[in-house]
Specification:
Layout lengths: L5 H11 L9 H18 L6 H10 L6 E2 L5 E2 L1 H13 L7 E3 L2 E3 L5 H10 L4 H21 L10 H16 L3 H13 L15 H20 L16 H5 L30 H13 L7 E8 L1 H7 L13 H4 L3 H11 L9 H4 L2 H7 L2 E5 L1 H6 L6 E7 L4 E6 L12 H12 L5 H12 L6 H9 L15
Parallel strand pairs: 5-6
Antiparallel strand pairs: 1-2, 3-4, 5-7, 7-8
Length: about 475
């Protein structure tokens, strides 16, 4: 009797997924997250490293079958890479939180969207494949404390991106299992990518993973087999992680997107409530950064470890975008000084300016046991600000707009797209993108790709100083 592996069971789940497994209102929530990913991509087009990464993708492209956001076409793998870079770059993408870490389901967008255009898929088929990818990534993340075990969440992205791409290619269960396992076995990513000094690679790694998932999935179509025993065989992930792995494939619901968080501010998810509370103190009391003597941030343990100076290293002297958006001291300081934390706050010139470097040196971050016990159901934080004149202000916040307890509405995500995209697309084009995503299940995916390819890759008009 032929042995059946976890990978076979997972592959059958992917192959059997149907449109009926994605009912309203989950479909509407998924469209909201697609629009959010596009907003992030538009907001990245003037990123300092983006032109070089686009040139790299163009250099290594072959037959063009997919569209770059911002114009131009490339091979499916390079379009997957570049568009995923854009979605991740501003650190405004969706997030799924778990006790042992997190993942960013929007990291699947670049690979799945490129593959959908490559195979001339319908919008409905793209959305189904993306929902499958979200489900695979989130179910693995919910069960396996990847980051607590020293691994990075690009591991489950390799599985999920391959699953979504295999769904679009129409692979049977055997080839789907080959695609998932071949993609994942070479993407056992390390959590050290988050350690100080945080590098550019932290933000590029998911795009490279998605690109390799596209490549592995297409190799499976040519008969290249993957290691079926990836999960439950000798030296597989079950042995490596010392726990069983069950994707709960008997549950056909594709509803993990309902548990995702969206962001208002350019920072890791653990900074959203802190920035929100800091801005509220600033605005409610009409203070400026120059008034501040010191700040104390009380956070849950994961936030302290990732971005407060804990397990992943000190946060005393950020010099780059990648260090700044993973630094609670910088994020609180720039919120107090600028009254916002948007793309401009992550430009290197802003990060290195003396005013914010001085203020962040007077920000203390501590882990609090009570706040830690409430995570991940709550991403609570306390912010305490003492002014030079002796006045003190405090605020505790247990959630923020964009969390599952206060979900960001479709209308608010459209505002986010207008905010981030106004410098690269005129009002009419932005409205057409929004309308197309709203009805994406009724049109070919090429229609949306054409609109995203019409966006300018350079700034056409100055970005306003507002925030979402």
């Amino acid at each position: 009797m032929t042995q059946k592996y976890v990978a076979d069971d997972l592959a059958e789940f992917v192959v059997s997924a149907e449109q009926s497994d994605l009912p309203e209102p989950t479909l509407s929530t998924l469209k909201r997250n697609v629009l959010d990913s596009i907003a992030c991509a538009l907001g990245a087009l003037d990123g300092e490293l983006v032109p070089g990464l686009r040139a790299h993708a163009e250099q290594f492209s072959s037959r063009p079958t997919a569209t770059f956001v911002g114009g131009g076409r490339a091979s499916v793998d390079q379009a997957a890479f570049f568009n995923a870079v854009l979605v991740r770059y501003p650190d405004l993408l969706d997030t799924y939180l778990t006790p042992g870490g997190l993942c960013h389901p929007a990291d699947n967008f670049g690979a799945v969207f490129a593959m959908a255009e490559h195979v001339e898929a319908s919008g409905a088929d793209f959305l189904l494949a993306l929902a499958v990818a979200y489900e695979v990534q989130c179910r693995f993340s919910a069960q396996v404390p990847v980051m607590a075990r020293g691994l990075n969440h690009a591991l489950q992205l390799a599985m999920s991106a391959a699953a979504g791409c295999a769904k679009l290619l129409g692979h049977d269960a055997a080839r789907t299992a080959d695609a998932i396992t071949a993609s994942a076995v070479d993407n056992v990513s390390l959590a050290a990518v988050h350690a100080e000094p945080v590098s550019v690679w932290k933000g590029i790694s998911p795009a490279a993973t998605g690109m390799r998932a596209v490549y592995a999935t297409m190799l499976a179509d040519r008969g290249v087999t993957g290691p079926k025993a990836l999960f439950d065989g000798p030296n597989g992930l079950v042995q490596l992680l010392d726990q069983p792995i069950d994707f709960r494939t008997g549950d056909r619901a594709l509803d993990s997107v309902n548990e995702t968080y969206l962001k208002q501010y350019c920072s890791l998810i653990h900074g959203q409530a802190i920035i929100d509370a800091t801005l509220a103190i600033r605005e409610d009391n009409a203070i400026s950064g120059a008034d501040v003597a010191e700040v104390r941030l009380e956070v849950f343990q994961g936030a302290y470890d990732f971005a407060g100076g804990g397990q992943y290293g000190p946060k005393d002297a950020p010099r780059t975008k990648e260090q700044a958006d993973y630094n609670l001291k910088y994020l609180a300081a720039t919120a107090l000084l600028d009254g916002q934390v948007g793309p401009e706050q992550l430009f290197v010139e802003r990060v290195r300016r003396a005013d914010v470097q001085d203020l962040l040196s007077r920000v203390e971050v501590v882990a609090d046991d009570e706040l830690t016990a409430a995570y991940p159901e709550r991403t609570s934080a306390r912010v305490h600000v003492r002014l030079r004149d002796g006045r003190r202000f405090s605020r505790e916040q247990s959630d923020f707009e964009g969390s599952p307890t206060r979900p960001m509405s479709w209308d608010r995500v459209t505002e986010k797209l207008h905010w981030l995209g106004e410098s690269f697309a005129d009002q009419a084009l932005r409205e057409r993108i929004i309308e197309t995503v709203a009805h994406l299940d009724e049109v070919p995916v090429a229609e949306l790709a054409g609109l995203l390819g019409s966006v300018s890759s350079t700034v056409d008009r100055p970005r306003t100083r507002k925030r979402l």
